[in-house]
Each structure stands twice: as structure tokens, then as C-alpha cells.
Amino acid sequence: MTKNNKQASFITSRKHARVLPAPAMALLATLGMPAAQAAPDNAIDQNIPTVQVTGANTKAGPVSANDKFTAPLLDTPKSVTVVTADTIAQTGAVSLTDALRTVPGITIGAAEGGNPVGDNMFIRGYNAQTDTYIDGIRDAGSQSREIFNLEQVEVVKGPNSAYGGRSSAGGGVNLVSKSAQGYDFNNASVGIGSDKYRRITGDVNRALGNNSAFRLNAMAHENDVPGRKVVGGNRWGVAPTVTFGLKGPDRAIVSLYHLTSHEIPDTGIPFNNPVTTGADVSKNGNGTPFAVDRETFYGLANRDFRDTKSDVGTIDLRHEFSPTLALRNVTRYGKSNNDYVWTQPDDSKGNTVRYGTVWRRANTRATETRTFANVTSLNGELTAAGLKHSFNTGVEFDRETTERSSYIFTPGTNNPLTNTFTCPTSGAATLYNCTTLVNPNPYDPWVYTRTLSGALTHVSTKTRAAYAFDTIEINPQWLLNLGLRWDDFQSTLDTLPTATTVAAHAVVDTDFVSTQAGLVFKPTKNGSIYLSFASSATPPGNDGGDGLDALTAVIQNLQPQRSRNLELGTKWDLLPGGRLSVTGALFKSTMNNARVTAPDGTTQNVGRKEIQGVELGFSGKLTSAWTVFGGYTYLDAEIADNGFIASGSSFVPSPFNGNRFPTTPKNSASLWTSYAFTRDFTAGFGMSAMSKVYANVNNNKWVPGYARFDAMASYTLNKDISLQLNLQNLADKLYFDKVSSPHYAGVAPGRSATLTANFRF
């Protein structure tokens, strides 16, 4: 088998001791990031579990970094969950998907042929794969994001188009980056654990004079996935930032971010593929994944790999005309690569039911996405006609280009005995393209030549937008929140022809208006009750050519899918100092023009989806030593009109009308709580749970519900050193945490333990 040097070195490292790149190890030799940021001598010691210092200028309740929110979160008529750095650190999260496990109402989707390996979130039942933002600007391209440079994660629930432009109806995730501070600190952490877990992070800050500062965050990480054979990898990242003008009125923040990863991705376990006719019907199971050993891996260690790279550069400029009026301009350039060969345990021909075999379908991708964005905004406060206005208005320009191809193999990946992907037998005679359902060998001697396909797809997407938000204080008890955004969206797709494929061309050119409106009543200063409306727009080609919502000639002339959400909610900051925040909301979301097959067999905007639900949340401290974070979400999600399906020479109404959304649990809940028993010793406990989840609109493939439990203990040795032990999945629960493909379900990690030493020096 011929491979490029990068892949060859990666496979060698998987079979022997994995070694991180020399630049990463050299960079991290003296650096690290602690569980909480260090501070100068006169600041709050964040290793001590306190919530407030008398006389300190603190804000009650969670705080958002999104300047498009023109009121505190307490008075923002929308469901927003803030996962703080403390929660991320205490739970032992090392990736974005780890951090989002603490937020109910979010599920993680599985990769598929058209859906890439990477972060694939579903929020309130809708695919939010493209709805990730870094500091308020869309982060395009399929990626698996790290947390080493994050201050917090903000999850906006419900339609997000007024804030972020084109998006799903479910919401969006905003990642808040760390920035330079005006004082010196050095923090480091070193972690070891089960399943070859090793992690080192660093956070160094230096004041440059009395008005500027430099900060460097860095990370190196590697581990296998607990309970999963073969699966694992390594990554490293670095993120320097410089801030000029800490004391204003003019400020400039220049930052860079780099992340590189190498891994063997997981294959999951196939669903029983129901056969609807013939004698095989009697062999059907109940629609859940096959009951094989949790370590079962259907891929090929000598073929499968995933290499990713992400580079982002940002210049953030700000000028304060006065304490209540500021102009901001942000320019960002980013490039991401997602390159992989990944085995999907395909069951589309019933191999698993009929023969007890699995076709090793090779899903491949070689993608590069480049983005350039510029945002100019004006935010401030003013009084007009006797009313106080807090506003933010701006314009955005964005361009995304994606080059996507795939790999081809010589000889092919079908079964040579059948010249198809049916597998009556397995083993060497099938060139190991077919394996057994039980006890497959990931080290089968698979020998092929891999080349890049000439069928290159180029997608260019341009967006122009203007927006305005205003919170109007009618009186101290009544606030009116208004938001309006106009987007002009253009996207072009071109695919080069090859000897076996034809050229493809598609163009979408559309514009749409998104709205956000809410009326807030404040019965007391520390509470609010609101009624809000929001809309979202999902145009054809929403994913910029890097996901399931790709542009094609079939959908290029369709209208954006429009969703509307009506929400009645309440938010309260309770206990002295507002140290405990509690929220609740009732909501109903409707998409009346979903893209489905029409009665004439064409794709049209004639479908309908409906979700109604309840959401509860809480975060903060019950006492000065007892912290809590979590919530509960109930989702009644119905595919009200799924269009039509072919029946002979005509089309009949879909038999799946009235079924539940895939990847949408009816009930989900999470809890993280910690208690400081002494000044030096803290213990924590976590739970995340959800009910059954369907993998398809047919509702005949599903994974059962589960409850997972975690624990943490930390001990402060002295003012410079602390230790933290995390135990994940205490009961070693076998459950499935990635569900959206009708072929397989992703297996969640088993029980693991990690010990981290945090240093301040």
C-alpha cells in the first residue's frame, strides 16, 4: 500500500508509542493551563470556592460576551446557557462536545457519507452543524473543536438567524476566546490517565507596560477512547494574542489560533437493518444496534485515518467615543482542513441480518475551507423621546470557499466475489472489504493504493448583511427587545468532470430578513418574565459545501426554509448577590416550508415540522461552598408533513407523517454539582441522561435512553499547586452518544480516570 508520508508516520505511531510533534513538545515544555485562571495577589483566588468578595464589582448571574445582546442575560428574552471555564475544568472536558454534554437539549449526530466527521450538534431537534461561532463570527468548515483557548461556551436556543445570519431553527453555539489581561500570571497543567491519556496545557500572560499585554495558550493531548479498540489519536494547539490599549479609549486585539490533530476515527456499531419482505423478516431485531462487544471495531487500522488542521487570525479594533458609545471592527481569516478515510459499518443490503457480515464502506473526504469575514458595529446607549435605548447595529461581509474531493482505491472497495457491496462471506477472498459482525479483525492485512479523486468540488459562498438590535426601557418594569437582520446570500457550486462523472453546476442567489422581538416584564430587579418571537432562515447550500445541506441543481431555485419560534419564559437571580440563576421556558417552533418531495416527485418547500417543549436551567451557588449547574429539556418533536414517496408510477403521502424527529430525545437532563468541604478539598458529581433517540424518520432504528454518572475530587496542596481527579462514566455504562445515521450508532466512551496537576508560578 502506498501512502503519503503524513499518514504513514501516523500509522506507525499508532502501532507503537505515539509521540507528539517536536515543535509542540518544545513549546509546551514550560507551559500549561490550569483549571482556573490565576490572578494578581489582590484578586479573587479561584482555587477557593467563593462566589463573591464584599466590595468587588461583580455581576449577578451568568454573563454573555455577545455584544449583540443589548441587555444582560437576565433581561434577554431568549434561552441562553453559559458553560463557564470553571464548569469546563471541573467536569474534565477536553473538547467542545465534552463541554456540551452538560447542556440538555443538545445531541451529537453521527457522520455519514454526505455528513463529515466532526462536531455535528443538534439543538432542539434541528441540525446545527454550521451554527458554531467564535467570538460572534461564524466558524465555517467541518472540525472537531478544542477548549484549551476558551473562556466559556454560550448556547443560544431557538432560531438564531437575527444574531448570526443563515442558521437552523434550533440555535447556535458561540465560543468565547481567552484574551490578554493587564497583569502577569503563569499557569500550567499536566494530566495523565487511563487509556494512554496524556495532556499538557499552558497559559502565560505578560503585561507590556501599563496599557498592553500578551497572552499565550498552548496544548498537547493524546489518548485512546476508553472501551473502544484501536480508536484514538493526538493533537496540539497554540493561541497567542496581543492587546494594545487595555485602558482605552482605543483598543486593538490581534490573535492567532492553530490546532492540528491526527487520529483513527470511530466506526460505531451497526443497527439491525430491518428487512420488510421474505424469509429474512423473522431475523429482524428490535431496531437497536447489534448486541456485540463494546470494543468491536469494524474499520481497518492500516487504512483509516483522520488529519485535521485549523488556522485562524483575527484583528479586533475598538474605539470608544464615550463611556456609552463605541465603534468596533473585526477582521478574520481562517482556514481549516478535514482529511480522512473512515470506515462506516454499512448495512444497506442486509448483510448483517442475512449473513452476519459487514461491508467496510470507505467514507473519504479531503476538504479545505477558507473564510474571510469583516464585521463593523456601533453599540451604545441613548435616550430618545424619554425612553432609554441600548443598541447594537452593524454590517457584515463574509466569503467562504470550500474545495472538496475524495479518495479512490486500487483495487476498489467492493466485494470482488460479487462485484457489489453484498457480503455472503468475509475474509481474504473479499480482499477484507467484508468482515464479520462479531469479532472483526481491525488489523486485517488490507493492501491498496490510495489516490485523490479528480472529481473536485468547488463552492464559493458570499454573504452581505446588516442588522440592528435595541432594548428599549419603557419604564423600570417593562422592556421591549427588538432585532432585525437582512442577509444577501450567494453560493455557487462547480464540480469538475472525470472519466466516470459529469460536471455539476448550481447557483443560489437569495436574500431574507430575520427578526427577533420580545416583551420583558420585571416584577423585581432580580427577575424577569418574557414573551418572545424569533425566526430563522436556512437557504439552499446553507453549509457552504461541507455537509448534508449542500447545494445541488435540484434545490438551487428553492426558497430558504423558514422557522418561527414563540417562547414564554422567566429568569431569576436568587439568593444574596444573585449567586443562583434559574430559568424556565415554554416554546413552540414551526417550520412550514421544509424541503420535501412534492406530489409530482420534485423537491419543493411544502413540508412541515413542529416542536414544542419545556426547558429548565440553573447555575450558580446554593451556598458559598456548593455550586450547581444543569437543567432539563422536554421536546415533543413531530414531522407533521414529510411530503410524498414513490409508489409504483405515482407518489403517495409519506407513511412517516406524524413520526418523531430523528436525533431528538423527548427528555434530557444534566447536573453538575460540587462542594468545598474545606478550603483545600472539593468534590463534585455529575449526571447526564436522555430518553430513547431515533436514527431515522422511519422511527424503526433507535438507541435506548441512558443515564451516565461522573465524579471529581480536587485538593489544593498550596497556593501554587492543586490536584484534580476525574472519573468519567463511573458505572462503565454502555450507551450510544452519536445518532443520526440510519446505518450505525456511535459508542460512548467507557469508564476512565484522569489525574491533573495544576500549577501557578
What Rg is obtained from the alpha carbons, in whole angstroms?
26 Å
- Residue-averaged pLDDT: 89
CATH architecture: Beta Barrel
Q: Per the principal axes of the C-alpha atoms, what is the gross shape?
A: globular
What is the CATH domain class? Mainly Beta
Largest sheet: 22 strands, antiparallel, barrel
Signal peptide: 1-38
Membrane topology: Multi-pass membrane protein
Protein name: TonB-dependent receptor
Domain TonB-dependent receptor-like beta-barrel: 271-730
Explain the overall architecture.
The protein is mainly beta. The protein has a single domain, classed as Beta Barrel (Maltoporin, Chain A), CATH 2.40.170. 5% of the residues lie in helices and 52% in strands. It contains six helices and 40 strands. The strands form seven sheets. The chain has a 22-stranded antiparallel barrel. A hairpin with a 2-residue loop joins strand 17 and strand 18. The longest helix is centred in the first third of the chain and has 11 residues, at 5-15.
